[in-house]
Each structure stands twice: as C-alpha cells, then as structure tokens.
Amino acid sequence: MPDRAPQPVDRQLPTDEARDLISLVRDIAQHEIAPKAAEEEDAGRFPREVFALLSDSGLLGLPYDAEYGGGEQPYEVYLQVLEELAAARLTVGLGVSVHTLASYALAAFGTKEQQVEHLPSMLGGGLLGAYCLSEPASGSDAASLRTKAVRDGDDWVITGTKAWITHGGIADFYTVMARTGEEGPRGITAFLVPGDAEGLSAAVPEKKMGLKGSPTAQVHLDGVRVPDSRRLGEEGQGFAIALSALDSGRLGIAACAIGVAQAALDEAVGYATERRQFGRPIADFQGLRFMLADMATQIEAGRALYLAAARLRDAGRPFAKQAAMAKLHCTDTAMRVTTDAVQILGGYGYTVDFPAERYMREAKVLQIVEGTNQIQRMVIARHLAGPEAR
Predict the structure, then answer these.
(1) What is the spatial distance between Cα 221 and Cα 215, in angstroms, rounded to a whole number?
(2) CA-CA distance, 309 to 75, in Å (whole number)?
(3) Are the CB atoms for 274 and 284 separated by under 8 Å?
(4) Which residues are catalytic?
(5) Distance, CA of 278 to CA of 281 (rounded, Å)
(6) How many Cα neighbours within 13 Å face the side chain of 185?
(7) pLDDT tens digit string along 2-15?
(8) What pLDDT does residue 1 have?
(9) pLDDT at 2
(10) Beta strands 216-227; 155-166: pairing state
(11) Cβ burial 313-338 (10 Å sphere, 16+ → b, else e)
(12) What is the pLDDT of residue 4?
C-alpha cells in the first residue's frame, strides 16, 4: 500500500570520501538489493552476484589496509555502510559483516607474508569468507570446542564439525578455530582453510525462521590438511584471536540490527500516513503516534551507542564493554521495533505482502548470533563487577 518514500538517515560522517561512499552504497542498495530482497528471501536464494558487485566496488574490505586492497575506512564509517546494506536486505548486511569477521584473524594476527599472499583476494578478489568457532556441543561455551588439529610434519590435519556457520558450503575460505593442545582456551589455534580443501564439506543448510537467503550449515572437516603457513597467530592463541574478532563482529551485528529496525520504522510510518480509518490517516491517532515516536527514539539511541563504541575502537581505546552494550541494546531494539511495526500494520503486517513480517523474523536471530544477549549481559557485568566467583 504505502508509496511514501522513506527519507534517508541523516548521518554524521567524518569526511567527504565517507559521504561519497554512503551515496554509492545507497545507490547499490536501492537498485541492486532491495528490489529483489523479498522474492529471493522467500525462495531462499543467496545473492552471490551482489557480493561480487560489492567486492568490485571495494565494499568487502572497508576497515582494512589499502595496502592489501582494503578501504582503510574507520569503523565509524564501515558500520554505517553495514546499516544501509542491512536495511535493504539483512542477508547482504550480515554477509558483509561475517566476511569482515572471517578476514579479521589474518588482517590482525597474520604475518606479513600471509597478508601479502591472501588478503588482496579476500578483500577485493571476489572471495567470500566464513568464521568457524561454534560446534554442535559448544555454542556459548566456545572454549570447550572439540575440533582437533594435529601436527604432521609441516602440515596440520584438522578433524571435527563446526555448526551454525554463515556461508557454510559456499564460502571460499574458512577461518577455523581448532584444538591443538590442552583443554580450555589456551589449547586453541586459528587456521585459514581454503573452501575447496580436500575433506571439507557442508551439511544441508538449516531451515530457519528468517534469513532464508543466507545459508547456515554445519561444516565437516574430515582430515583436512593445511600447511603450517596457514596457521594464524601462535599456537594456543586462537581463542584470544576469536574473542578479539567477536568484539568487532558484535558491532557489525549491532549496525545490522539498526538497519533492520530503521527499515521497519520506515515501513510503519509509510503505512500509517497512508492508511485511513474513521476518515483520517491512522498516524493521526495518538496511540500510534506515540508508538512511532518510541520506535524512532530507540533506533537513534542504538545508532548513537554503536557509533560511540566504534569511535573508541578507531581511537585505539578499549571497547569490549561498549561493543557488548551495543549488540545487546541494538538487537533488542530491532526485536521491539519490528514487532511494533507488525502491530501498526495490523492484519497486513502478518502477511507476506508487506515486509514487516520478514523484518520481525529476521530481527530474532540478531539476539542470538555472535554471542546471545544473555552472554552480552555477562560480558558487561564482568566489566562492572569483575569475574564471577568459581
């Protein structure tokens, strides 16, 4: 029903280059992503051609060094790009966030030789990455992972199963955490595994409530052999690398959540200003006006929170607590705002003819991925009151 075009978010960007970048992203989102989003999500189709376009446009390596093909943009800018992409289609925004997460271990902990060899193709060569930490029996308790990597001469042989892997089965490379030593976090090492490695396979993708266009699957490693030159960081450093990556990844999820929430708000405003009941637009009724006001306020607060955390990161200051706060608040906001958007559309909101129901289904997963919101509360509390007593 609504033909009222939403107004673009008024963004505070640090440079003219960043403003041009957002304009480019909005153009791609409007013409290449949004028009096919509903149909392709319903069909469960992953838009690989969109990711090829994003790679060609320099949008898959925004926060990384230009020396290796990255965009060398601050996180403050990169996250706002994610928000714009997620507002058009969460499969794309989340996919870029996951690819950035998968590239992090090499970019932050790899040797110069490893970075020269692999990063250019990962950041701008059309490749797509996946991040492999979770397992069927170790989700929130990631340090208990069972996948093993055993040294065999100059190689490592990796055996195990990873679970809930975004891009599982279609990724060109996998950043894999595997146990190389003692039990617990100190016995874990990170590896860069090619997607076509012998012995690597993926299960049938999970059938999910939302994000149907983004494949999520178990990844099986059956004696996968990788050279020691693909070990990232030191032996036993993998869990620290994983946690460091997740601090930044949580900001990506926060930005994606605000993108989905903004899309839901735009849909609700458009509907409420066009839909007439009792002789006037339903947006004239105070109950709905207050709902819209609350939705907009929650979104602005979430955007401010993730940007504040991003600016700490860009300044080289600790930001783990703020990243957890941003992930917690922004994803809870997305769930509230999308639920309210469905309510404002009434019966239409419950049909697939309008995107509100899709936004609501997609928002739910953001409260779960990259650390459930209960884990975020634990992280925040540890920063406030110290570790829990054992």
Answers:
(1) 18
(2) 9
(3) no
(4) 370
(5) 8
(6) 7
(7) 455 678 999 989 99
(8) 45
(9) 43
(10) antiparallel
(11) bbeeeebbbbbbbbbbbbbbbbbbbb
(12) 57
Asked if 380 and 327 touch (Cβ cutoff 8 Å), the reply is: no
Tell me how far apart the alpha carbons of residues 174 and 84 are, in angstroms, rounded to a whole number: 26
103 contact partners, CB below 8 Å, separation of at least 6: 61, 64, 119, 122, 123, 129, 175
Contact 265, 341 (CB under 8 A): yes
pLDDT for the residue numbered 385: 94
Closest Cα partner for 376 from 317, 307, 306, 314? Answer: 306
Which residue positions in the chain have pLDDT lower than 70? 1-5
Question: Tokens standing for 102?
Answer: 């998968």
Cα 263–344–360 angle (5° rounding)?
45
Q: Cα separation of 337 and 65, whole Å?
A: 36
**Distance of alpha carbon 166 from alpha carbon 179, whole angstroms:** 21
What is the predicted pLDDT for the residue at 389?
79
Strand, helix or coil for residue 245: helix
What pLDDT does residue 139 have?
84
Q: Which two tokens stand for residue 301?
A: 């607060």
The backbone torsions φ and ψ at residue 355, rounded to the nearest 5 degrees and listed phi first, read -80, -5
* Identity of the amino acid at 230: R
Spell out a b/e string for 212-251, using b for 16 or more CB atoms within 10 Å of the CB, else e: bbbbbbbbbbeebebeeebbbbebbbbbbbbbbbbbbbbb
